[in-house]
Amino acid sequence: MSLGSLPALPAKARLSTTVALDEPENGDFIFLSTVSDGTSTQTHDYLKNEHNPLENFVPEQAKSSSKTVETPSSRPEDKHTDNGNGGFRPVTQKVNHEFSNQQLQVCCKANASEVKNSHDYLDEAMVTSPITRAIIRGDHTLVLESLRQGENAGTFCSKSGQGYLHIISRHARSDNETAWVPMVYQLSNSGADLNHRDKTGCTAARVAIRRKLVQ
């Protein structure tokens, strides 16, 4: 695996394999997207600014494997625009072809109280990155909670043994704030090691993921 420095995402960059997952009534949303430059697949993680991590970042098209769906928001102020100096600031970037070039980006926000009270687990997993909680809400929503600032490697290991999601890095707004933040993953077809610990020695915590994401 290698992490590299990539250019900022142009305003009209082609977004492929983009899936709009959920748009709750409170306006929060998450989506997956893979960005391709025509020669290689690159996954970008962008923040408009540190106080509004998901503000204005909405793909022009959101497509599922079976049908075209609406983008999370159609408001003009939510459209992705280029301000002339690269637009959105790239926070997490990677190029990796180790697992069939299948790279996913998860941008998510959710209500902490909903997460604490939810028991809608569709698949059990282990996480070795310092994330407080990560579960599925409803049928399509993966929600993550992170308390600490910085970057750390970790792994979502599927109990089904059909693969795992590797956490490349993360970004929280502050050390003292519970933040729902963009996360970048790589989908692996390898088997899962439920006893895995990352290099920081973090103890694996029980979380849940959507089974479809690891098949």
Topology:
Elements: E1 15-22, E2 30-36, E3 41-47, E4 62-63, E5 68-69, E6 89-94, E7 103-107, H1 112-117, E8 124-127, E9 131-137, E10 141-146, E11 154-158, E12 164-170, E13 183-188, E14 205-208
Antiparallel strand pairs: 1-2, 2-3, 2-7, 3-6, 4-5, 7-13, 8-11, 8-14, 9-10, 11-12, 12-13
What would you note in describing this structure?
The protein has one domain. The chain is built from 1 helix and 14 strands; from the N terminus they run βββββββαβββββββ. It has one helix at residues 112-117; strands spanning 15-22, 30-36, 41-47, 62-63, 68-69, 89-94, 103-107, 124-127, 131-137, 141-146, 154-158, 164-170, 183-188, 205-208. The strands form 3 sheets. Strands 1, 2, 3, 6, 7, 8, 11, 12, 13 and 14 form a 10-stranded antiparallel β-sheet that branches. Strand 2 and strand 3 (41-47) form a beta hairpin. It starts with 14 loop residues before the first strand and ends in a 7-residue tail after the last strand. The relative contact order is 0.20. Residues 1-215 have low confidence and may be disordered.
